[in-house]
Design goal:
Blueprint lengths: L1 H19 L23 H17 L10 H4 L5 H10 L5 H12 L8 H13 L3 H13 L4 H16 L11 H13 L3 H13 L6 H13 L3 H13 L6 H14 L2 H10 L9 H13 L3 H9 L10 H13 L3 H13 L6 H13 L3 H13 L6 H13 L3 H13 L6 H13 L3 H13 L6 H13 L3 H13 L6 H13 L3 H10 L9 H13 L3 H13 L6 H13 L3 H13 L6 H13 L3 H13 L6 H13 L3 H13 L6 H13 L3 H13 L6 H17 L13 H4 L2 H13 L6 H13 L3 H13 L6 H13 L3 H13 L6 H13 L3 H11 L6 H13 L5 H13 L6 H11 L1
């Protein structure tokens, strides 16, 4: 703001000086603009600039104008466009004065001359035959081009001057200027324009030199078009010139871009014999080519040989190799090279730091990534959007959404603008955590920030809604896509078909599938398989078979996943013969069974406890090069535990560990259940301890299993005999005493209750509508200094709604909002509709009004609360009142959403 005031002060000062100064100096040189009979309205800006121009012109007309006391004050007021306008208003200004004035302006940080500013000065210099200065200015003009448009404009201006069309005198383009023009065009890969300029150069009888040919060769080599580059190489020889290091280095790049790294190596090897020493760029091009081809070890060898050519690796050399090593998941080598470059005095740049941050994040080394980010900041390098995106992606993949949002806030506070990928990474993270309403909130923020969502954005949101089973909202997103002219693709419709099948709506899924041809979307194997799976789950095997045959008839390849889907579906309903027929069909088609195929078969065999047959297949899959995974091992553990063969189950665990396969939550839970069934409850808790110590968080089902066995011990003794308790009844039968006993047992075995333990217990009580018991657990949680988290609140609110305790639900929602939590809109629908059901219209309006200021996406709010909630329950009048409330609050809706709502109201 100070700069703005300073510029305005300078303008007003100029006006004041004009009023108090004599007008005589203004007539030293003639004015060269014309006036119309009727003057046009003059804007305030034009008035100020006119006064400013007259003041500057008055100063320039005085001797020793550079020392004039007002000159320095007026310099900051002159922009590139104002300079152009000034010269157009005073075209007969002395060319010496114009040039000196330009040079003085160029010393001011605020003055950044563009092509038009250079061109205006160039015309004055050419008209005054100051060709030496003109040459310098036009070279500077070409060098100043930072965009394609600027480069094309400069080319057009120089062409017109070359032909004498732009000013009174013709100013021929020199060899140096032609070369600079070619380099400027090459920067933006404007190949066609380069070819035209090269032809114009020959037509002007300007003989190309080695720099000309190297520029043309390098441009084509960047595109991998070696054959065209070789044409210009032949021109070098025809012109009696000799290729140099730059020529050969370009060809190394060209062959690498073409994918012929061996040819690039031959050029590299031949360079010394042709009298062309190799330089850093020669090495970097070949190292990069080898890395792109996956030949990183060769690249490392070449890297070690650089010293033989007296070449020192630079920051690009190191960055290329570090990036390639991370890409091959050789993170420790990459980090070692990163430390080596610093030890050898090669300072990483922003790109290097970003590569390391990205690599460590992809490898799950988030602590290391944060250390690198801090080092980057300490070194004075500024993280780019790509740097922050890498960290956000890393945190999202780990499920650490809070940390990812923290990165977004750091990004914004450091004035680094998020882009569409930033938001897509976060939306993906929220959708993975089943919090699609927060992804929709980010969609709103994107639009507010002027970031345009793309196809990936909407595909993520569609997929997120489908994962939650909310097909209606997923379909509504298609309207938003249509409004923004974003065309859905396979990744849009694939999750929709899958979600419809998961809900048992196979007819609707088939109809959607059939409509894709009309939409111009090719049906792929994933869509076929999803629909086949839907039919198998619905036990419509004839339709599944017909669809499978249609898939093959359309030339769509049935992979192992498709066959496995049918085989598994048939096994589930005990159609073993049909399942094995499909297995034979799979083998005849040339599709090799994969680990999932063998796992399905072994699981079925183990249901009959036929361990000999299961192990024969197990050993066979190892013999064909497949490695058993945790799911396959768990099938054996389940079978042994069901028979009470705990020793054999323990042997499977040991066998797993020897093969570097670590137990997961399910494997641990099965073993906990196995020990409990055999009456070894202490061993169950020992396994729980091992589970926690290995970094696995026990699941809701894990705690249900433990409670089941504690209840069994309470009712039937600790010998494992007597009656049985179904795990599904655990939450019905447990009481507060059992909760305390569970906590005590956990303490005794070195794994005290965590926040997730409380979540599981609260969820269990809530699932049975035991709100008071859940609240007692909440009190216990608070006594231990553990605050309620968002999931706890959601479970309690859901429990209240299911029990018609809507006022209690509102109190919980208010507490959530005060803590910055954003409740799912499904819960808000239940509360608003529940309040209206209870006749509490004022409270319903109040809570809805509060929702309008929480950051929810307004379209989703209407879809979920008004359309799916109130309208479906017959509250049309109340819905109209809330729509008016939204309008008064300035909430903007998509036209399709509004139309749908109005149609529902009518």
């Amino acid at each position: 703001m100070n700069d703005v005031f300073r510029r305005l002060s300078a303008v007003f000062f100029a006006v004041k000086m004009m009023r108090s100064s004599p007008a005589a100096p203004m007539r030293l040189l003639p004015l060269c603009h014309s006036f119309t009979a009727v003057p046009e309205p003059v804007s305030l800006h034009d008035h100020y600039s006119g006064e400013l121009f007259r003041q500057i012109f008055a100063i320039l007309c005085q001797p020793n104008w550079t020392k004039h006391p007002d000159f320095r004050k007026l310099l900051p007021s002159m922009s590139s466009s104002l300079f152009t306008s000034f010269l157009s208003q005073y075209p007969h200004l002395s060319h010496h004065v114009a040039l000196n004035f330009f040079n003085h302006l160029s010393t001011a940080p605020s003055f950044n001359p563009d092509v038009r500013a250079y061109a205006s000065l160039l015309r004055i210099l050419v008209k005054n035959n100051s060709f030496r200065d003109a040459e310098i200015i036009r070279i500077s003009m070409v060098k100043s081009c930072e965009t394609v448009e600027a480069s094309i404009l400069a080319l057009d201006i120089l062409r017109k001057m070359n032909r004498g069309e732009d000013c009174e005198f013709r100013f021929r383009v020199s060899l140096r200027c032609y070369n600079m023009m070619l380099m400027s065009l090459a920067r933006f890969m404007l190949i066609d324009e380069m070819k035209t300029v090269y032809k114009e150069m020959l037509d002007d009888n300007v003989s190309p030199n080695i720099y000309t040919f190297n520029t043309m060769i390098n441009a084509y080599c960047k595109l991998g078009n070696v054959s065209e580059a070789e044409h210009y190489l032949s021109m070098i020889f025809q012109g009696g010139l000799k290729p140099d290091t730059h020529t050969f280095t370009s060809f190394i790049l060209g062959y690498c871009r073409k994918g012929d790294v061996d040819a690039a190596k031959m050029v590299f090897i031949e360079m010394p014999g042709k009298g062309c020493p190799r330089n850093q760029v020669s090495y970097n091009n070949l190292i990069h080519g080898l890395c792109e081809a996956g030949r990183v070890d060769e690249a490392k060898t070449l890297f070690s040989e650089m010293k033989n050519d007296s070449c020192i690796p630079n920051v690009r050399t190191y960055t290329i190799l570090i990036d390639a090593l991370f890409g091959l998941e050789r993170s420790q080598e990459a980090l070692g090279l990163f430390h080596e470059m610093k030890e050898k005095g090669c300072r990483p740049n922003a790109h290097t730091y970003t590569v390391v941050v990205d690599g460590t994040c992809k490898d799950g080394m988030l602590d290391e990534a944060m250390k690198v980010l801090q080092e980057m900041l300490d070194s004075g390098s500024f993280p780019s959007t790509a740097t922050y995106n890498a960290l956000i992606n890393g945190y999202c993949k780990k499920g650490m959404i809070g940390a990812a949002l923290g990165m977004l806030h750091s990004m914004e506070s450091n004035e680094c603008k998020p882009n569409v990928r930033t938001y897509n990474e976060l939306i993906s993270g929220f959708c993975q955590e089943m919090e699609v309403h927060k992804g929709m909130q980010l969609l709103t923020k994107m639009l507010e920030q002027g970031v345009t969502p793309n196809l990936v954005t909407f595909n993520l949101l569609v997929c997120g809604h489908c994962k939650r089973g909310d097909v209606d909202n997923a379909l509504r997103l298609l309207w938003l896509m249509d409004e923004k002219n974003i065309v859905p693709d396979q990744l849009t419709y694939g999750p929709l078909i899958d979600a419809l099948c998961a809900k048992g709506n196979t007819d609707e899924a088939q109809a959607t599938f059939n409509s894709l041809k009309e939409l111009g979307i090719h049906v792929n194997d994933v869509m076929f398989t999803s629909l086949i799976d839907g039919y198998c789950n619905a036990e419509k095997f004839d339709l599944a078979h017909n669809l499978f045959e249609a898939m093959l008839a359309q030339g769509c390849f049935a992979n192992s996943f498709t066959y496995n889907t049918i085989i598994n579906g048939l096994f589930k309903v005990n159609k073993r013969k049909e399942a094995f027929r499909y297995l034979q069909k799979m083998l005849r088609s040339g599709t090799e069974p994969d680990l999932a195929t063998y796992s399905i078969i072994i699981e079925q065999i183990l249901k009959e406890f036929n361990f000999d047959s299961a192990y024969r297949i197990f050993n066979h899959l190892i013999s064909v090069g497949l490695k058993p995974d945790i799911c396959l091992y768990t099938s054996f553990i389940v079978a042994y535990c069901k028979l009470g063969k705990i020793k054999e189950a323990e042997d499977v665990i040991e066998q797993m560990k020897k093969q570097s396969v670590q137990p997961d939550v399910m494997a641990y839970t099965v073993l906990i259940d196995g020990y409990g069934r055999s009456g070894f409850l202490d061993k169950s808790f020992n396994v729980l301890n091992s589970m926690v110590m290995s970094g696995h968080e026990p699941s809701h089902f894990t705690y249900a299993v433990l409670i089941k066995h504690l209840l069994h011990e309470k009712f039937f003794g600790d010998n494992g005999n007597g009656g049985s308790i179904n795990v599904n009844d655990a939450w019905k039968l447990m009481d507060q005493g059992m909760v305390l006993k569970l906590f005590a047992k956990m303490e005794d075995h070195g794994c005290p209750p965590s926040a997730n333990t409380y979540i599981a217990i609260i969820s269990g009580f809530c699932s049975e509508g035991r709100f008071e018991d859940a609240c007692k657990v909440v009190d216990h949680l608070k006594q231990h200094g553990i605050p309620l988290n968002e999931k706890d609140y959601n479970k309690l609110v859901e429990c209240c709604c299911n029990m018609k305790m809507h006022e209690e639900a509102v109190n919980l929602i208010n507490a959530m909002l005060c803590r910055g939590f954003l409740p799912p809109l499904e819960l808000m629908k239940l509360i608003v509709c529940g309040l209206y059901d209870d006749g509490h219209e004022v409270e319903a309006k109040e809570i809805f009004y509060r929702l309008l200021h929480c950051g929810y996406n307004y379209d989703e709010l209407v879809w979920k609360v008004l359309i799916d909630g109130l309208l479906k329950r017959g509250f049309a009048g109340q819905c109209s009142e809330l729509l008016v409330l939204m309008k008064k609050s300035g909430c903007t809706l998509n036209p399709q959403t509004r139309e749908m709502l109005i149609h529902g109201l009518q």
